[in-house]
Input
Amino acid sequence: METPWFAKRPVSAVRPGDHGWLAYSGPEERDRVIGPFVREGLETDEKVVYVTDSPPERLPGLGPAHRIDVHAHIAAGRLRVISRRDACLDRSGAFQPAMMVDTLGHEVGTAFDQGFRAVRLTTDYSWLLNEAGRSDLGRMLGCEHQVGDAVSPSTMAMAICQIDRRACPPDQLNALRDTHEVLVEVNPEFDDGILKIVRTFEPDGLRVEGELDAARHTVFAEQLGQLRPGGGSVHLDLSRLGFIDLGGLHLLAKHATRLPAESSLVLDHLSPDVESVIEMVGWHRLPGLARGRGLPQPEGIA
Output
């Protein structure tokens, strides 16, 4: 079996033709991806279509803290919140993939005449897997293939399909993921072209990419300081970190000593170059740091 190919993009880089996938590990991760997706669409006068039974003012990115006049956007047609019954359920309450595809197709088809330059589509499928007797992986896979066939060649439509990763076993989650070409993640906390820092949620921590040198110690220390371990360990994914200086290592050790006694700073996926620097210094001279998981096998993610 061939390994599927994916593009991984921060949410602000999603563009027309992207059939995106978000398997989130909790409300914070979901809100930090879907919130910008919705808000940026409204701010750029694009049409946002959200299939959900939640009230508009409770959707990610549209809460009171964001000071967005939700009802004004609805009145202007920029925000379309469509209930599941209207979008994809038949009279008996059963999920109908063809109905969902038709609903989304209609919204995209009318957008150009309404004066919009792009359409952002999103829905959360977790309810299909959570409700007893309603889980139907085959129908979900068929729906995702059809949505992908409609979105991928489009010059207007972009979509993010959401699911709580805890709602189904890993094999089903992977099967659903494989119907998408784009994996969507949070926007970077920092990115200057040399160092990139991205929040991770499972495990809780940061992914650090590029080069960590003296000019970037301050911003790195700030990002470390914003992590609040909930009684567990903080993980740093260093698989894409090509260089770290001695000052950066001491920052890690300094932060580790400030963590609660039951927590630790775990270094995951160390590249050979970074691991050789740590070995040269000696793990015993960096108290509080723990060696985590090794580099994963290639999974076809670009």
The chain has a mean pLDDT of 90. The first helix runs from residue 27 to 43. The first strand starts at residue 7 and ends at 10. DSSP finds ten helices and 14 strands in the chain.
